[in-house]
Amino acid sequence: MSRPEQSFRLPLPTAGPLEAPTEWKEMRGRCPVAAVELPSGDKATYLTRYHDVRTLLSDPRFTRPTAQDNAARIAPDGAGGPVANGDPSLIGAQTGETHMRQRRLLSKHLTAKRVTTLRPSMVAIADSLIDDMLEHGQPADLKAKIGFPLPVYVICDLLGVPVQDRDRFSHWSNAFLNVSRYSADEARASQAEFAQYMSELIVAKRARPSEDLLSALIKDNEADGDGLSEAQLVGVGMGLLVAGHETTTNMIGKMVAMLLAERTHWEQLLADPSLVRTAVDETLRFDPNSGFGLRRYLTDDVDLGGELVPSASTVFCSLSAANRDEQTFAEPDRMDLSRTPNPHLAFGAGPHSCLGQTLARAELQIVLEALLRRLPTLRLAQPVEELRRLDGLLVGGLQEVPVRW
């Protein structure tokens, strides 16, 4: 099957900050294996069907491109952060046994049991942040007051990173995920500062270990003669710190905005708080603004829906588009807070699925439960169409979420 000649440009335009691109439905029906142009000007392949996305992500042969692959670049002029550039020290960019070993090291410390033990402290943090927001009065930016600090406090406590440096983490995270917000020189300088900070922190923890995840990884490393290199430890530490707060920060803002945009959704949760768990997963599925999607580099030819995608292709798996596939989800463009089962792909699939998804779900559930309990009259402080999208980064979000109560 030959690929349609039409080419699309990423990121795709939308009619509003919480609207899905109209092109997704067209692509799934007419060109599910589409040619796209990236902000860098490079060309890639873009997948929008659920089955194709899940198939490719579940194939252990394929991973994020590394710096050694001649893959399509996301960011122009070399300005992209490590995720866009394929830094080989990052856990998501590893392949083979090195990747599996890193996942084993991390997964034994990021268990559901450990997340359960963290829940009481997360509930206390959420209530404290709401107290502070109430004290400062309305309107308030819910993303800045709750969405950002809660995941930062949690991941800093988990990793053993000083929370007082949170503003620096925010800047470094944005540079880490940069596409066009910063120049190449600014992005490189930020990454050098971030790496130096993490390297010094690891040295300090090696000298004085504690009961945190970084200390545990160092201990595991020293107990195994075939452990991670120092550069890999630094890269994993940086990746965990960014992944542990950036995506959840953005999702808290989007989740609340989506639920308040249609007031009946908020009222439904107030009437039946037991729906919080399914509601969180439904907002994850319904999210139209998760970024570019997961990038994969093909080391073999792959047949996707009857179309051959050749080896050495760079493929973007659009999780958000796949989560709107009518072949998998009934009424996919309607947010159903009781939807079950809900096999969405918001956390990816296969050997590179998100290791922190249990923690992320817990944080989203706790924030939503606390807001429903403490602020039942919560509402958006401005029309939905005036909300502003977060631009220039690999991840999608809203710049702020103004609310009243």
TrEMBL record:
Q: Which SUPFAM superfamilies match?
A: Cytochrome P450
Q: Which cofactor names does the annotation list?
A: heme
From the Swiss-Prot or TrEMBL record, what is one GO molecular function term?
iron ion binding
- InterPro entries referenced in this protein's UniProt entry, alphabetically: Cyt_P450, Cyt_P450_B, Cyt_P450_CS, Cyt_P450_sf
* Origin superkingdom: Bacteria
Q: Which Pfam families match?
A: p450
Keyword Metal-binding among record annotations: yes
Key words of the record: Heme, Iron, Metal-binding, Monooxygenase, Oxidoreductase
The similarity annotation says:
Belongs to the cytochrome P450 family.
- Read off the PANTHER family from this record: CYTOCHROME P450 BJ-1, P450, PUTATIVE (EUROFUNG)-RELATED
- Descriptive protein name: Cytochrome P450
The species this protein was found in: Streptomyces muensis
